[in-house]
Write a structure and sequence with these properties.
Oligomer: single chain
Distance between the termini: 50 Å
CATH topology: Cytochrome Bc1 Complex, Chain D, domain 2
CATH class: Mainly Alpha
CATH architecture: Orthogonal Bundle
Largest sheet: none
Bound molecules: heme C
Helix content: 40-55%
Structural class: mainly alpha
Order of helices and strands: HHHHH
Number of helices: 5
CATH superfamily: Cytochrome c-like domain
Strand content: under 5%
Number of strands: 0
Length: 102
């Protein structure tokens, strides 16, 4: 019986953690971006990957410039307005890109 309770507690804790972090930059990136940018690449336009080299070449050095690229993307990229990706989420995705794709 005790064991059963412990399992239930773990399960509830996992559920809570999952919903608290549901909007992590990584998860949002996987959901909205990774189809075209798998592993930070770019399947539509390989010259415009999310690597630091490409990003900086195209003038994106910080989170706010990355958020701008989501709001006003170049040709071939889906546009992410505030309804799809509120500022907080867009910023989380930008931070994820900055720390993940070197
Ligand atoms: C439908 C495919 C598609 C999706 C989905 C997509 N992108 Fe893009 N992305 C592109 C294309 C194509 C470009 C190149 C646009 C251009 O020529 O400026 C691009 C360019 C970029 C760039 C500029 C890269 C550089 O080196 O200049 C950033 C940053 C970026 N995308 C971020 C994102 C983020 C963040 C998401 C998710 C919120 C996302 N993209 C979703 C296709 C996509």
């Amino acid at each position: 019986m005790k064991k059963h309770l412990a399992i239930t507690a773990t399960f509830v804790a996992t559920l809570t953690a999952t919903s608290l972090f549901a909007a992590s930059g990584e998860e949002l990136f996987k959901k909205h971006c990774s189809a075209c940018h798998p592993d930070g690449g770019n399947v539509v336009n390989p010259k415009k990957s999310l690597s630091r080299k490409d990003r900086e070449k195209h003038g994106m050095k910080d989170a706010s410039s990355l958020v701008k690229s989501m709001r006003n993307p170049g040709p071939g990229m889906a546009r992410f307005d505030k309804n799809t990706l509120p500022d907080k989420d867009a910023k989380a995705v930008a931070d994820y890109i900055l720390k993940t794709f070197k």
